[in-house]
Amino acid sequence: MFTNTRFDSWDLPQHLLDSLEKIGWECATQVQKDTVPIARTGRDVIGQARTGSGKTAAFGLPILERCQPTGQLQALVLTPTRELANQVAEEFQTLQGETGLMIQTVYGGTDLEKQAKTLSGGVDIIVGTPGRVMDMTERGHIHLENPTLFCLDEADRMLDMGFFPDIMWVIERMKNRDQTLLFSATFPQEIIDAAHEFMDEPEFVLTNTEELDIPPIDMYSVKIGRANKLWALGRLMSRMSDEDQTIIFCNTKRMVDLAVQRLNKHRFVVEGLHGDLSQNQREKILHRFKEGEVKTIVATDVAARGIDVDGITLVVNYDLPVDLDSFIHRVGRTGRIGRKGEAWSLVSRDDAPQLSKIMATYGLEIIETEAPELPDGIDRDPVSRQDDFGETADVFGFVTLHLNIDSSLAGSSRSVAHWFQSSLRCDEMAIGDVHFDDGSTFVSIHTSKVGLAIKALEKHDMAGQRVTGTVFE
Questions:
Q1: Does 378 map to a domain?
Q2: Confidence band (pLDDT; 50, 70, 90) for 215?
Q3: 3 state SS for the chain
Q4: CATH number for the domain that contains residue 104
Q5: pLDDT per position as a tens digit, 60-111
């Protein structure tokens, strides 16, 4: 990901070089090397870059170089979420060093008048979300005719969240805009079409597309039913050291809350992050996570945008995402700037086609494996494994048991079915087809009775024989 191009080989202003040296950055990442020199010439740029590739500095350095501490708005950066706006603004503050630029965030979920009062003291750069920027423009707190620089970050996520009409509204009012920078991890046709509407012969920076999209991390999948996903997650989390940090992804806010509740019950300390939390709550959780006070977060995709923490070594897809691009955004939370990381996906039978689609679309190598063994020193699972026969059931909810008894001993199929009805004290509808093959007996039993059937075989003889039953897959 890093190149041999040194920042001090560019004729950047000394204050920017000083700040880069102060934070220990010597060489540019690939997207920085490809983007910064073009953007510094004033040309419009479309860059492909995932979170964690150094893209904020790729558009931040050219913007910071052109802005002066005048207190007049010169640059506007739009991001899809409040968390990402904060992350970008923080990195801008770090990169600008002693420049003295006033950089402010503008986003919903906080007091509008308080933000307006902050802006009234003068601002050089605004980093904000589309809705709040629109609102404050209409109220006269932001004057979009002033800035000449415009940057759109994570354009594909903006498109997914339905922000493009708002973005076009903002762009139409930026009458003096003379440079536009657009960054996206993927490029749906709608983004390409829109870009040609509001950009002036943009330069495409698509170097090492595959490397930028797919982080260099180890990826694994575990075939497992929903009933035992928590068991597998417990094993993954028990492997983490005190320095490691983890993000667990769920598809819904409800699932985030349930996962947090269940993990806390099993003595894991985790925090949930989703859109129903207040902005203040989300910022507190994110701050604690970035400071390392919280080691594990359970989050939805939207809430996780903007989490930029180098210590994340494990990402778990508790739910496989419906949107293919979300998979890339999720696993991109680990393996930051070349660091080592792992991404595990817990895949039920219903999820298998989606995983195959993700692997084929991006050419990913995701190794299918079992849930990891418990680490040394831990001899008991944090979460107990449950009987779960749903993964092997047919469309009617029946599972086939393989019995190690021949038909000559078992008797007729009717007598076998009757034995199970009597032993389980169940309705005859819970016992399906019975057939014999190659010295064995096979009986279909409804998933609700399979566990009881196996226990009944352990306790009672069948036709005077000790018989074992295993699920036939």
A1: no
A2: low
A3: CEEEEEHHHCCCCHHHHHHHHHCCCCEEEHHHHHHHHHHHCCCCEEEECCCCCCHHHHHHHHHHHHCCCCCCCCEEEECCCHHHHHHHHHHHHHHHCCCCCCEEEECCCCCHHHHHHHHHCCCCEEEECHHHHHHHHHCCCCCCCCCCEEEECCHHHHHHCCCHHHHHHHHHCCCCCCEEEEEECCCCHHHHHHHHHHCCCCEEECCCHHHHHCCCCEEEEEECCHHHHHHHHHHHHHCCCCCCEEEEECCCHHHHHHHHHHHHHCCCCCEEECCCCCHHHHHHHHHHHHCCCCCEEEECHHHHCCCCCCCEEEEEECCCCCCHHHHHHHHCCCCHHHCCCEEEEEECHHHHHHHHHHHHHHCCCCEEECCCCCCCCCCCCCCCCCCCCHHHCCCCCEEEEEECCCHHHHCCHHHHHHHHHHHHCCCHHHEEEEEEECCEEEEEEEHHHHHHHHHHHHHCCECCECCCEEECC
A4: 3.40.50.300
A5: 999 999 999 999 999 999 998 888 898 899 999 999 988 899 999 999 878 8
Residue 298 near residue 272 (C-beta atoms within 8 A) = yes
Residues 189 and 219 in one domain: no
Kindly state the average pLDDT of the residues 426-432.
90
Query: Which of 211, 230, 256 lies at the terminal end of a domain, its last residue?
Result: 211
**Average pLDDT taken over every residue of the chain:** 87
Residue 1 — very low, low, confident or very high, per pLDDT cuts 50/70/90? low
Same domain, 49 and 174: yes
Q: Looking at the structure, do residues 261 and 190 belong to the same domain, yes or no?
A: no
52 pLDDT exceeds 70? Answer: no
Q: pLDDT tens across 256-271, in order?
A: 999 999 999 998 999 9
Domain assignment present for residue 97? The answer is yes
CB within 8 Å of 430: residues ≥ 6 apart: 421, 424, 445, 446, 448, 449
85: containing domain: 2-211
What is the arithmetic mean of pLDDT over 20-28?
87
Overall pTM > 0.70:
no
Do 35 and 179 fall into the same domain? Answer: yes
Please indicate, yes or no, whether residues 312 and 163 belong to a single structural domain of this protein: no
CA atoms within 13 A on the CB side of 31: 28
Distances (CA, A) of 419 to 170, 197, 456, 462: 74, 74, 10, 7
Single residue among 190, 211, 232 that ends a domain in this structure: 211
**Whether residue 196 sits in one domain with residue 332:** no
pLDDT digit string, tens, across residues 357-372: 888 777 788 999 999 9
The confidence band for 208, taking pLDDT boundaries of 50, 70 and 90, is very low
